[in-house]
Specification:
The complex is a heterodimer of chains A (about 180) and B (about 675). Helix content of chain A is about 50%, strand content about 0%. With about 180 residues, chain A is mostly helical. With about 675 residues, chain B is α+β, with helices and mostly antiparallel strands. In chain B, the strands form three sheets. In chain B, strands 5, 6, 7, 8, 9 and 10 form a six-stranded antiparallel beta sheet that branches. A four-stranded antiparallel beta sheet of chain B has the order 4-13-12-11. A three-stranded antiparallel beta sheet of chain B has the order 2-1-3, with no helix packed on it. In chain B, helix 1 packs antiparallel against helix 2, helix 16 packs across helix 17 and helix 17 crosses helix 18. The radius of gyration of chain B is 28 Å and the shape is flat. The N and C termini of chain B lie far apart (about 80 Å). The chains are: A mainly alpha (about 180), B alpha+beta (about 675). Chains A and B meet through helix 1, helix 2, helix 5 and helix 6 of A and helix 9, helix 10, helix 14, helix 15 and helix 17 of B.
Chain lengths: ~180, ~675
């Protein structure tokens, strides 16, 4: 339920109204396309090559990063233009031989700790990691003590073999016993 | 005119709710039945009045009255009529009216049915529901008015106000912005109402709980009266969450259904406390224990419902500044705070009357396992609440913003979910009062062995992840225990009555809908767990840019890019739609059509994945981008989502189980008598 609606800048320029593609193409466009293809054919082998580093390598790192604008949307799936640029930055850094930690550190230095998926464990941030387990352990201890107190207060006779909380089940049990 | 009628109806409803609360409280305290009756009548007025207001909004939306600010914000001419109607809950003001409408309807329904039987509780139910309603109506009237119009001030600025500011002229836009495209999905059309139904239904058990504390009826009457309300509330909340997940999967285009977003968690938290409540009330009903704890849980659930309502539409928790600037943020928090103070005060006032009637028989008993269940649910709740709140805390104290993302929640709640799965397997076999470990072990060893065999098979087939193996082991244990419980009961009936197995199953579940409905819910959870573990642990993905005719491989799948077309649609969208051929193990499976829709009016794109679904897995393809000039190049992201359909399939089973549990049972007294008479000859 992420809200992808707020940022105005998207990775693709907004289409122009009424333009239809795949159908009629103007001669100027056709010439431009032909020229591009011809140039590409000269420059590249027949099959397009994977960019180096690959999208998957970039996404593996982008998955753990969040840009400050698109809250709660990981960088690898964010469709905004700003995030596309960040991904290109990751690609450049990877190409320059940086590792994941160095790249993360670079973004933290540029934009602060909030780019990381979880708060960096320092200072007040320790609280985010410590409070839930401490609360859980305290609650568990409290529960344990309460249960001990309750159980120690009075020990009723053990109940029969199986739950007999309602008459219907009691009857089921009875029938099972007689059968065996 | 319509707007004025609607606004006037809201003001009247606000006055009626305030009067209703005051009169009912006064009448009950001073023992003046006439005032109580008058308060009830005022309450009965609120529903028709809010209905008029809601109908007025729908009329304005349908008749395209764009001078109304809300209409301009959430609809546009190109939208079909059904979306215009559902735009009622497409923005904050309309959502609040919708919430109020449900609240007044449920308050009316609750009082109509039980007015004679629970005469002393109901005045306070009126008070609590009407105070809640008055709070929401106050927000609508003073801060989020859906009937406010657009004006042009003398200085030429656009102003939003109900009535004309001095010298201002009406401003009538030609067209509206249109509903957020992300919300134009069938899942989104019903998902918010389901969540709201769940939210609002939980107010009723809370109202009865408060009434019980005010009047000193500290027995389990309030729980018995509201049992079905609670189940229905929980049903709708569950349905809302599942539909929300499906919507995210279909529309948001990131390959998943749950992203631990604060808005998701806001809807999830009341579900967590509500689930704990549903389990622990059974202990109070059966054993007269946990009275205080159940009250704490229902108060907590109510507070989380209000918190969730606030969060889901406002988004102000994203920063301290957004919160401080929003008019309704502090009000919501003030209201939640007040609720907690009053509820806690009442609870302390009745503390001694709420003593347990029974003691815990043993540390190993159904009760203690239920307590453990509550502890785990509360643990998950703490993680969720703290995760949502922490960015604000951090910003407040250090000025630094932080992100608390999915890895935090997954790591922190993973072991707790595993614990819950284990409990789901063990608790149904434990007896109330006291269970001998030996007997529990005897009941458990067969299902445990079967689960161990399953884990062994998974290891043999190459699964190495310890977390996945533990998860699947616990899930299959629960599945076997639950199925065994069904089989045992049905077999006993078959032997005794000579019924066919299916008929025996049907009749057995019909006789004890709550128990067997609960078991069906557990089976639903197990199925969902299969799916969740599958996608969380074994999802794979790849991304690449393809020229026409080129291919990309992910696992056993090969995807070939055929073509891409870009065109305008009559409903004011620009669609870029790719055609891909999918092969698996060299066999042609069909075409997929991932697309990107661009909405001109709201200037928003929307990514619709192309999905090939089987029970085993989903192949989920997103169109990430394409070359605007040459149609040849396009970038795709492909996800392989193993077992994800078990999430939806399990969700359906889950909902069916809840329906079984919530279905009204026949009177219990004659059934008990039948059991006694049937058991008598056996003893003789």
């Amino acid at each position: 339920m992420r809200d992808l609606t707020s940022p105005a800048a998207w990775s693709l320029p907004p289409p122009e109204r009424g333009r239809v593609r795949g159908g009629g193409v103007s001669p100027a466009w056709a010439a431009a396309v032909a020229l591009t293809i011809a140039l590409a054919a000269l420059a590249l082998p027949a099959r397009a090559q994977e960019p180096t580093p690959s999208d998957d390598e970039v996404n593996a790192i982008a998955k753990g990063l969040y840009c400050p604008v698109c809250e709660n949307v990981p960088l690898d799936v964010c469709p905004t233009q700003a995030c596309a640029q960040w991904r290109e930055t990751i690609r450049e850094k990877l190409a320059a031989g940086w590792n994941q930690q160095q790249i993360q550190q670079y973004f933290v230095e540029q934009y602060g700790g909030r780019v990381l998926a979880t708060p960096p464990p320092s200072g007040l941030n320790w609280l985010v990691y410590l409070l839930p387990p401490v609360a859980f352990v305290v609650a568990a201890y409290f529960l344990w003590r309460t249960m001990r107190r309750w159980a120690g207060a009075r020990r009723p006779a053990p109940s029969p073999d199986a739950p007999t909380d309602d008459p219907y089940v009691a009857r089921l049990e009875e029938e099972l016993r007689r059968r065996s | 005119m319509v707007a004025n009628i609607g606004f006037f109806a809201l003001v009247l409803a606000f006055a009626a709710s305030l009067y209703g609360a005051a009169a009912a409280a006064f009448g009950s305290l001073r023992r003046r039945p006439a005032f109580v009756e008058s308060g009830r009548h005022a309450m009965l007025l609120t529903w028709p009045l809010v209905t008029v207001a809601a109908a007025a909004i729908i009329t304005l939306l349908l008749t395209q009255q764009y001078q109304i600010s809300y209409v301009a914000a959430v609809t546009s001419r190109a939208m079909p009529a059904y979306l215009k109607v559902t735009a009622l809950w497409g923005g904050q003001p309309g959502s609040l009216v919708f919430w109020s409408w449900l609240m007044s309807a449920f308050a009316t329904a609750a009082s109509l049915r039980r007015w004679d039987r629970d005469r002393e509780l109901l005045p306070w139910v009126v008070v609590v529901t009407m105070v809640t309603l008055a709070f929401f109506l106050m927000l609508v009237i003073f801060f989020e008015n859906p009937f406010a119009r657009l004006w042009q001030s003398i200085e030429g600025q656009q102003v939003t106000a109900m009535f004309a500011p001095a010298g201002a002229t009406p401003l009538v836009p030609v067209d509206g912005n249109g509903l957020n495209p992300l919300l134009r999905h069938p899942g989104m059309v019903i998902h918010p109402p389901m969540l709201y139904l769940g939210f609002v239904s939980f107010v009723i058990p809370y109202a009865f709980a408060m009434a019980a504390m005010v009047t000193g009826r500290t027995d389990d009457r309030w729980i018995r009266v509201t049992r079905r309300w609670t189940l229905v509330a929980w049903l709708f909340l569950s349905l809302g969450l599942i539909l929300g997940g499906r919507w995210a999967y279909d529309v948001l285009g990131w390959g998943g259904y749950w992203g631990w977003d604060p808005v998701e968690i806001a809807a999830f938290m009341p579900w967590l406390s509500g689930t704990a409540f549903l389990h622990s009330v059974m202990i109070q009903e059966k054993r007269g224990m946990l009275k205080r704890w159940n009250l704490v849980l229902i108060v907590l659930t109510y507070a989380l419902v209000i918190f969730g309502t606030f969060l889901t539409r406002s988004g102000v928790l994203s920063s301290v500044h957004a919160f401080a600037q929003s008019a309704i943020g502090p009000l919501f928090f003030g209201f939640i705070g007040l609720t907690l103070i009053v509820s806690t005060g009442l609870l302390l006032h009745r503390w001694n009357d709420l003593r347990s009637e029974n003691q815990l028989g043993s540390l190993l008993s159904r009760e203690s396992l239920f307590l453990l269940n509550n502890l785990l649910f509360m643990g998950i709740l703490i993680v969720c609440f703290w995760g949502v709140i922490f960015p604000l805390v951090s910003e407040l104290f250090t000025g630094q913003k932080v992100t608390v993302g999915p890895p935090f929640y997954e790591r922190a709640t993973g072991p707790l979910w595993a614990g819950l799965l284990l409990l789901m397997g063990v608790a149904p076999l434990a007896a109330y009062g006291r269970t001998a470990a030996r007997l529990l072990g005897r009941a458990l060893w067969k299902p445990a062995l079967a689960a161990a065999v399953v884990v062994g098979v998974l290891i043999a087939r190459g699964m190495t992840s310890p977390a996945a193996l533990i998860g699947y082991g616990l899930a299959t244990l629960t599945a076997f225990v639950t199925l065994f419980e069904f089989a045992r009961g049905a077999w006993a009936r078959r032997v005794r009555h000579g019924e066919g197995l299916l008929l025996a199953l049907w009749r057995m579940a019909g006789r004890n809908r709550r128990r067997y409905g609960g078991y069906i819910i557990h089976l639903g959870v197990v199925l969902m767990a299969f799916g969740i573990i599958g996608i969380e642990m074994f999802q794979t993905e790849t991304q690449g840019t393809l020229a026409q005719g080129e291919q990309m491989t992910l696992g056993r799948y090969v995807v070939v890019y055929s073509s891409l077309a870009q065109f305008d649609t009559p409903d004011d969208r620009n669609v870029a739609r790719a055609v891909l051929s999918v092969y698996r193990d060299g066999r042609y499976l069909g075409e997929l059509h991932p697309r990107r829709d661009y909405y001109y009016a709201s200037q928003q794109p929307m990514t619709i994945p192309g999905v090939r679904s089987t029970l085993e897995d989903d192949l989920y393809v997103i169109l990430v981008g394409w070359e605007p000039i040459a149609a040849e190049g396009a970038t795709f992201k492909i996800y392989h989502n193993p077992l994800v359909n078990f999430v939806w399939f399990g969700g359906i089973v889950f909902i069916l189980g809840t329906l079984v549990a919530a279905w009204p049972e026949r009177e219990t007294e004659p059934a008990a008598a039948r059991v006694r008479s049937a058991a008598a000859p056996a003893r003789a």
